[in-house]
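Reopening this one. Same input as before:
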Amino acid sequence: MNNSIITVKNISKKYTITHQRGGYVAMRDVLTDIAKKPFSFLKNKAKQITGKITKEEFWALKDINFEVQKGEAIGIIGANGAGKSTLLKILTGITPPTTGEIRMNGKVASLLEVGTGFHQELTGRENIFLNGAILGMSKKEIAKKFDAIVEFSGVEKFIDTPVKRYSSGMLVRLGFSVAAHMEPDILLVDEVLAVGDAEFQKKCLGKMDEVTKQAGRTILFVSHNLTAVQNLCKRCILLEEGKIKMIGETKKVINDYLKEDTLSKNSSTKKITDNILYKNKNIELQKITCNDSPQKNISISNLPTNITIKVNLRMKEKNKLTLETCLKDKLGNHLAVYVPGHTNPNNVFLISPGEYSLTAKIKLPKLNKGTYFLDFNFTNPGIESYAVINNAVNLNVLGYVFAEGRTFDADTNGAGYQVLDGEITIK
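Same output, byte for byte:
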């Protein structure tokens, strides 16, 4: 007997992208042209014929096929632009597919964007009843769950305030609480949970786990938080350029997504300085190397060992400065930090405008074989961050080698969390 609650067959979604030469055209110019030449349709056709306007087909999704069983929690992962959100919008009915069909058996609730399903002029209380009515619940059923929804969301104080005055975090809290407590058969959740704070995200994941395991409801969960996907979902779908690359056990799919060639295919020639996020204009990072290499990818054959980070920089105003780093595993879990300014105030340097060379030698712990990441933060600790580089270095650890030559290669999700030792200088 087929117990599928969602069946997706040959779903594709095509968009038409228009390219027009000639740059920006103001609205007043458009209105003037229409008044002077009302046969604008013929004019646009002429532009198409002469090549001034061209159209391109873009397939956001192509030949998507899968089934979801009742009570399953399915993760959907992939890079930005892979088609994850488009797929959920099609499943929700926000946009129709170009080809293919979808069968969904049961009530569907979704949380795709901040404020989805809310009327901005209505209060939080009124929106709860509105959403329940849309899902086919009676006023009595909604009233029965009202207190639990409000308590879970944590917005009791503002429940009679129009939601247009809510912050994005408050909208997400109330939106998820409504969607989870209205007992839909299918719950679709996009990356919108990333807007909430860490405590509420944990609370949401716990609630989703509860509704699948205890209530037997189905969840499709899109997220870049691979740890959350691995903890919640037994099966996972990997999308790549609008197509399904892999469906299977979550851990296996995530490992395939994060395997070394996937990580390095776009970063093998990238430099550490390529992804600098400046928080202010007081600093200019001119050159950064890790173990004398400016490339993002670094390999280490034996642990414990030191890594040496050298930075050429220019400071534009007199201020205090140090470098902090964070070591993360392939799922983005924080394993260790190097925070010299917090452990010793002498490691925060008061420097005048000019060019400097900063050197940090950091002692790494014993790590399992695999890929790790280093984040950099150039900061006046506790006061101001000048520049941040997320995933500045892809650290390929070849494993801890014992005296007899055997490599430690245990199957673990992390190595703990610790403060790293090291030394930092600037001159």
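So the earlier flakiness isn't reproducible anymore. For the record, The domain at 272-426 is CATH 2.70.50.60 (Coagulation Factor XIII; Chain A, domain 1).
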